[in-house]
Write a structure and sequence with these properties.
- The complex is a heterodimer of chains A (100) and B (998).
- In chain A, 17% of the residues lie in helices and 34% in strands.
- Chain A has 100 residues and is α+β, with helices and mostly antiparallel strands.
- Chain A has one domain: Folate-binding fold (2-Layer Sandwich).
- In chain B, the strands form 13 sheets. In chain B, strands 8, 9, 12, 13, 14, 15 and 29 form a 7-stranded mixed beta sheet that branches. Chain B has a 7-stranded mixed beta sheet with strand order 42-43-44-45-41-35-46.
- Classes of the chains: A alpha+beta (100), B alpha+beta (998).
- Chains A and B meet through α1 of A and α20 of B.
Chain lengths: 100, 998
């Protein structure tokens, strides 16, 4: 069982308190009607499926209830970072620094 | 005294005999014995039959890696356990054990005919032998294989035992209480770290229990062991658990432990759990699991009496048992020589030491000669003889890599040693990399992925002194890393035994290797030639070889067989072992009971059962319940003599005629509040909400972003900034989570607050022409007339004196109200309504009647009439879409090409041609019943009931282009006959809706 840091509670807690909520940084368009079929398909279904560093959403469902973002390595299953929803996606350089 | 026990020797209690039974015969062992040691003390080696060939098998090991001596144990009804390792099960007075995999008896087994049909069962036989004729698979091959295969018999009664579970946090977890683990725990414990030391065995000590000759800090090994355990016992920060197996090593230093609490007791306390699962989160882990001895691979190496030399040493020194009267040692490693020496010193005549090496340590040779033991260096073993027990070993000198002429050594036990394999199972669970060590020709731990330290024989070190020093170092490092400054404990060791060895593939033989039965995996009957055959047939990956031959796939998880299998596979492939690689070890380390995994979660505690405030009344009044999501709901209320069908017909008729009452408290409820509540509702639900007046309700439809129906429910507006949303019973948590997701992450600017209120309200539905007559005198604060309170109204008022949210809505097509009162008043209100309703013959009804009544009106149930691929158009709910709204969740998807294409399955009604036929829900529908099989299925029945109101059956179905097929006759093929049904609309009863308007 993983340990996950909730950026709102600022506590590292067992995975059982959290649920996974899909890939992060996929914003719903302001006006979906402006999307053509292919763009809308990509928004709905096309995901990175990363081997390695993956930006993803989790919810502290049995805690504060907040959605937040995380960077997890899908090979080692290790969290590099968690951060609040709405905060910018960390740059590769920042992540390299963290991985050290 | 049993024939093979050495008086006064070992750690067993010679003053405490213990009686037990094996295959119906009584035996006597001593306190401290395992089943294996006690049987060996009685001269019994034959303890089982093998899986495939049913060959007689004896015990091979003295520990958890045992592949052969698997027994059924029993202590009364429901308390039988198959595949118990005789080497681990401690005896107690009255223990009953039986051998497995034999018929009619262990000595004479009919299944042994398989041994002579060996060609049929060679590698990959699953894929080859039973392929033809095809029809034989179901009727002949599979039943026969199922009867012949398998190990032991599962208990058929419920398990009466209880199982406990616990979370544990510690600084340092030490797995294995041999010299390395003890030293690690001492270092960490002395530094003040919270330390947990566990061992699978009944006693701590590991190899020290088998090798008492060493002197540690001036004390004999066993004296040192007691003082070390005393010291650990005296530290408040240290816990030592025996009979505790680390079954799996999971992420971030979580290790699963199973502690066996009662299986060794003659009379377990009545309230004691049988096992306890401990989920340990350790800051640091020290793995001190030691090494497992490797068998040698030669023809007949599985005959009872052939066992590992280290096991024989354990039986001798720990249990005071000699495993034979005339054992011979066959080895490629120094360690087995000491078995010969200790046996000889205990007065057991050793028939010889056969070593595949020509170059053997001079001290060992001298020690053997001084004891008068015949030495065969540079020799191989080409076969054994004996039916139920080995009687001789044939050995041959190795000349230029080939076996020379054979000599036969008479013996009653062959003690073999092919070297030692570090136990890396748990380390492998962490995906730690393994490093091939060419010198010892084995895998050692490489890169770590967790905070783990490996000590002692587990990383290839040899001897008590080295294990103690390495363990002390690992323990100190672990304690340091956990924030306790630690000194490395020092130990002074004399009398240690050295150990080097050579590695072999199959031993050379002067006989035809094609007829040799040289076993690698004893439990799964995999031989060396099976591995070579698999490679010849194209299995070039070790993972394929494993699955094709089943090598390492038995309950012992390849503890003995993996490295021998790898060596032979890489030899056959002509590649180096590290290029071939090792198969992956996976949890659990050893077989684990389901009980341990279940823990407390069984029976009533298997799952939470949610009940409504009215549930006690339903129970008292004989309701039959059904589970709906986690809820327990009343399904129907049978009167004496009624079956479900009769009860439901009566409940339906009573509701349509006069008045029915229904507990709808399980309905999901969410309050959407805040200045932006209406905007939020507009964006979430398909319907328009802006113009919905305060005090009015609307049917709301919720889609996923993909355009498919997710949920529905009636939503009332209580004030401009407050909506009372209802959801399906099962959908409430999902809907709230979805709303929270959009609110938090897509529209954080909206000022809206969401609250789950499902359990705050008790909801009672009143339906029927007399519903208003019952309610009117009880309601204060709201005029209930049709003008003042029309269909789809909501008001806050009091009902029978209780504060209430009163809805005028209907899920039956009758005049209907839903009264929500605070949950604590639900039961009182229900009782009041029942009492006052007596004058209208009020009838309580359950979910079954609710389903029939709603189906008569064509009201869908999301999840029954929809399945996650149904759009509002498909369900005939286009009217619920606010087409003028610029956007809502799922709107864009409704224009996706596939969602507007023809050929979609659409929700229609079905009227069977025979009105008495009630179709089966889920039944498939075809257009032409005479088409060849496989028929084209164009849809399925989603809802189907007997309608008492209509005097005939009704059904709903999703059918390809269903709307265009109205009036067509379709067909529903069933096993007994094919039913015909005409496609109709979905509103079967009161299509004008007049009954709602009373």
């Amino acid at each position: 069982m993983l340990l996950i840091h909730c950026p709102y509670c600022d506590e590292t807690l067992p995975e059982a308190e959290f649920v996974y909520a899909g890939e992060a940084h996929i914003a719903r368009p302001e006006d979906p009607s402006t999307y053509d079929d292919e763009a809308w398909r990509d928004f709905l279904f096309i995901r990175t499926n990363a081997r390695g560093r993956h930006f993803e959403r989790w919810r502290h469902t049995h805690g504060c209830g907040r959605f937040f973002n995380a960077v997890r390595d899908t090979v080692s299953d290790r969290f590099l970072l968690t951060y609040r929803a709405g905060e910018p996606r960390p740059s590769d350089a920042e992540l390299e620094e963290l991985a050290k | 005294m049993s024939g093979f026990r050495l008086p006064g020797r070992g750690r067993v209690n010679h003053d405490r005999p213990v009686g037990f039974s094996f295959d119906g015969d009584s035996y006597q062992g001593l306190e401290g014995d395992t089943v294996a040691s006690a049987l060996l003390a009685n001269g019994v080696h034959l303890m089982g039959r093998s899986f495939k060939y049913h060959r007689p098998r004896g015990v091979v090991t003295a520990g958890p890696e045992e592949p052969n001596a698997l027994l059924g144990t029993s202590r009364g009804e429901g308390r039988s356990e198959p595949n118990t390792r005789a080497t681990m099960q401690e005896i107690y007075s009255g223990l009953t054990t039986t051998s497995q995999n034999r018929f009619p008896s262990l000595n004479f087994d009919l299944g042994a005919v398989n041994d002579h049909l060996g060609m049929l069962f060679s590698a990959g036989f699953y894929y080859k032998t039973f392929m033809w004729p095809k029809s034989f698979w179901d009727r002949v091959y599979e039943p026969v294989i199922r009867r012949a295969a398998g190990l032991g018999v599962s208990p058929s009664e419920p398990d009466p035992d209880t199982y406990a579970s616990r979370f544990v946090h510690c600084d340092v977890l030490v797995v294995g209480a041999g010299p390395a683990g003890l030293a690690a725990a001492l270092s960490a414990g002395r530094a003040g770290a919270r330390t947990l030391l566990i061992d699978e065995g009944a006693e701590s000590g590991g190899s020290l229990l088998s090798e008492p000759q060493a002197v540690i800090d001036g004390k004999p090994a066993w004296d040192w062991l007691s003082s070390a355990l005393d010291e650990l016992d005296g530290m408040v920060n240290v816990t030592v658990l025996s009979r505790t197996t680390a079954i799996g090593y999971y992420h971030q230093n979580m290790v699963g432990l199973v502690q066996r609490l009662t299986d060794h007791l003659a009379e377990p306390p009545a309230d004691a759990p049988r096992e306890r699962m401990l989920r340990v989160r350790a800051d640091q882990v020290v793995l001190a699991q030691g090494a497992i001895e490797k068998p040698l691979v030669f023809d007949g190496n599985d005959r009872p009496g052939v066992m590992l030399a280290g096991a024989a040493l354990t039986y001798l020194n720990r249990y005071g048992v000699r495993v034979g009267d005339r054992p011979v040692v066959l080895t490629s490693h120094d360690s087995a020589w000491y078995t010969a020496f200790d046996l000889s010193d205990a007065g057991v005549p050793v028939a010889g030491i056969v070593d595949t090496r020509t170059d053997v340590d001079l001290d060992l040779l001298e020690n053997a000669r001084s004891r008068g033991i015949v030495i065969y260096t540079g020799h191989t073993a080409s076969s054994t003889a004996g039916r139920l027990r080995v009687t001789s070993l044939r050995v041959n000198p190795i000349l230029n890599g080939k076996a020379g002429p054979g000599v036969t050594i008479e013996c009653d036990a062959v003690l073999m040693c092919g070297g030692w394999t570090p136990s890396l199972h748990l380390f492998s669970h962490t995906k730690g990399s393994l490093r091939w060590d060419e010198e010892t020709r084995t895998y050692l731990p490489g890169e770590r992925t967790e905070e783990v330290h490996i000590a002692g024989a587990g990383r290839g070190l040899w001897g008590t002194g080295a294990a103690l020093a390495d363990g002390a170092d690992a323990g100190a490092k672990a304690a340091d890393a956990a924030g306790h400054s630690a000194d490395v404990s020092q130990f002074d060791v004399t009398g240690d035994r050295g150990g080097t060895g050579a590695s072999n593939v199959e031993l050379p033989t002067d006989r035809n290797p094609a007829t040799a039965k040289a076993f690698i995996d004893f439990q799964n009957d995999v031989t060396a030639k099976d591995i070579r055959l698999a490679v010849r047939e194209g299995m070039h990956s070790i993972e394929h070889v494993k699955r094709y031959t089943t090598n390492g796939m038995a309950t012992d998880q390849g503890k003995l067989s993996n490295i021998n299998g790898l060596m032979i596979a890489s030899d056959a492939l002509g590649r180096n072992a590290p290029e071939v690689g090792l198969t992956t070890f996976r949890p659990p380390y050893s077989p684990t009971t389901f009980g341990a995994f279940c823990g407390y979660h069984r029976g009533e505690r298997f799952e939470v059962i949610r009940t409504t405030p009215i549930d006690p009344w339903a129970e008292e009044n004989g309701a039959v319940f059904e589970p709906v999501a986690l809820w327990r709901r009343a399904r129907y209320f049978p009167q004496p003599g009624e079956d479900m069908h009769t009860a439901v017909n009566r409940e339906c008729a009573a509701t349509r005629k006069s008045l029915g009452i229904f507990d709808a408290s399980t309905l999901g409820k969410i309050e959407v509040a805040g200045p932006d509540a209406v905007e939020f509702m507009n964006r979430m639900y398909t319907n328009p909400w802006t113009k919905l007046g305060v005090g009015r309700c609307r049917y709301g439809l919720l889609l996923g972003e993909d355009g498919f129906i997710r949920d529905d429910g009636v939503i009332g507006r209580l004030s401009p900034d407050l909506f009372h949303v209802t959801t399906t019973t099962g959908g409430a948590p999902r809907v709230l989570a979805m709303m929270e997701d959009y609110l938090q992450t897509e529209w954080p600017d909206l000022k809206v607050w969401l609250t789950s209120t499902t359990e705050q309200w008790a909801t009672i539905a009143l339906n029927g022409p007399n519903a208003r007559k019952l309610l009117e005198p009880l309601v204060e604060g709201q005029d209930l007339s049709d003008d003042a309170f029309p269909h789809m109204s909501v008001a806050e008022c009091t009902v029978a004196g209780f504060p209430a949210r009163l809805f005028r809505i209907s899920f039956t097509g009758e005049l209907g109200f839903e009264v929500n009162v605070p949950a604590r008043h639900g039961l009182d209100l229900w009782k009041t309504l029942m009492a006052e309703g007596a004058q209208y013959d009020i009838c309580p009804y359950g979910t079954e009647t609710m389903h029939v009544l709603r189906a008569e009106k064509g009201y869908i149930i999301v999840g029954q009439d929809t399945d996650g691929t149904v759009t509002p158009q498909d369900a005939g709910l286009s009217w619920a879409i606010g087409k003028a709204k610029p956007d809502f969740v799922g709107k864009r998807s409704l224009a996706r090409p596939d969602l507007v294409a023809s050929g979609r399955k659409q929700l229609v009604g079905l009227m069977t041609v025979d009105p008495k036929t009630v179709l089966e829900e889920g039944a498939q529908i075809v257009a032409d019943p005479n088409q060849p099989i496989p028929m084209k299925m164009i849809g399925h029945v989603t809802s189907s009931y007997w309608s008492e109101a209509l005097g005939r059956s009704i059904a709903m179905a999703v059918v390809e282009d269903g709307f265009e097929r109205k009036g067509d006759t379709l067909h529903i093929p069933m096993p007994d006959k094919t039913h015909a049904a005409v496609v109709s609309g979905t509103v079967f009863y009161d299509p004008e809706g007049d009954r709602l308007k009373l």
